[in-house]
Structure formats: C-alpha cells, structure tokens
Amino acid sequence: MVAPGREGDAAPLIEMRGIERTYVMGDNLVRALRGVDLTLERGSSVAIMGTSGSGKSTMMNIMGCLDQPTKGSYLLNGKDVARLSRSQLADVRGRMIGFVFQSFNLLSRTTALENVEMPLLYQGISSRERHRRAKVALEKVGLVGREDHHPNQLSGGQQQRVAIARALVGDAPIIMADEPTGNLDSRTSYEVMAILQGLVDQGKTVILVTHEADIAAYASRIITLRDGLIIDDRQQTPVSATAALAAIPPAHAAASAGVAP
Length: 261
Fold this sequence. Notes:
Layout: E1 14-25, E2 28-40, E3 45-49, H1 56-63, E4 71-76, E5 79-80, H2 86-96, E6 97-101, H3 112-121, H4 127-140, H5 156-168, E7 174-178, H6 186-201, E8 205-210, H7 213-216, E9 221-226, E10 229-235, H8 241-246, H9 250-256
Parallel strand pairs: 3-8, 3-9, 6-7, 7-8
Antiparallel strand pairs: 1-2, 1-4, 4-5, 9-10
Helix pairs in contact: 3-4, 3-5, 4-5, 5-6
C-alpha cells in the first residue's frame, strides 16, 4: 500500500483549501483571492477564466509555485507547498510544472535546442543528456530540423512550439499555459491546442489560463473567477483542435501559412 501523498497514490494532484492572497498597495489591502477551494485530478484539462482583476493570474502564480498564499493550504502531489521557502518552491516548480507563456519567453541569442535545454541546466544534468532530452522534446512538437534555428528565424507558431518543448523537457506532470495562443493566427492556434490536447491524452495535466471562451472550449473543465472567488465550475466535452484544424478550407490554410493558394 502507498502512503497518502506519495508517488502512485490516487490522491488529487492539486488540492487547494481556503486559499487567500492579500497584497498591500500603499495604504490599501487588495484581496486578490478570498477563500478558494479547488481540486484537480491527474490527467485533466482545465481552463481558468476571468476578466482582469478576477484573481486568475494570482491563482496561476500560487498554483505554479511562483507565489505563496497569505492563508490556506495548497497540496501539490500530496505535499503542502504553501509554506515552503523560495528555494524549496523553485525546486518543486522545476520538477512538477512546465510553463508556456503568450510571449514565448525565448532567449533571442540562443538556438531552439539551447532554449529547450534551459530548465535542465539548473538540475545538474550533463550536456550530452540535456541535448538528447531537448531533441526528443522538439521532435514531440514537430520541430525536427529546427534545432539550430534562433527565435528570429522561426514563425510565431514555431516559437510557441519551442516554448512547449521547453515545458516538456523536464517531464513535469503539469503543463500550465498562460494565454498560449494570444499572439497566433487561427490555424496556428489550432495546431498549438492540438499539441496541448495530445499531452492530456498522454496523462499530463494541462491548465489553461485565459479570458477567451474559445480557448477555454478546448478544456474538459472550466473554472470561472470573479473578485477573487470561484463563481462557476463545470465539466464539458472539449472541442477537438485536430478536428477544427482539419475543417479549415485549403485556401484559408494556405493563406494562414503565408502561401499563395
């Protein structure tokens, strides 16, 4: 029998109870989160929605171990991370979470391969093993042959694929994507969402943070925040990004790719 909270246990991957986050801004206290309870299972796809000021970015930061709550408990893979030190949080974050951002956050003077390797540098992994893992990750997102390209030699969609490969290279169980298609055209957005949905099929937990309903439609669960509280939490049948991609007329597909029909 596996003890609660250990690897292989059926306990939730993420469990938040009474999470509050208060910021001091001048003489004012801003209650960004006001008592959030949330449970996420392994292998799920979840969209966290809300307008500006709803608390979704604060929730992402706490869930991603980038920030700590003012009050409440946060169990990640059975371990309470709400009171860890900054260095302990960084260690947990490196092992458990891969991030994908709207702005890609790639280093302009390094190649795609080197960008993907970056998270492994902090784990003491040898150069040869970093190269191997980075190549495998780039292959998973369809970028074979682009390893030596710099970001300015890649399209927006290809840069986002590099960012996804970087999130995958450490084999983290959670992929957290913050507005991952915000800078992309429709066809490329479908391609990126198809990759993310494929990761769910492989057992990864994918968390989308977005204010767009059409992006949230690709998740099987939608959590909506307003004024620091969860006001809606519902299951749905996700839209298939692969099917949406296949439905694009050839002429439109060629135009999106920058090719004359």
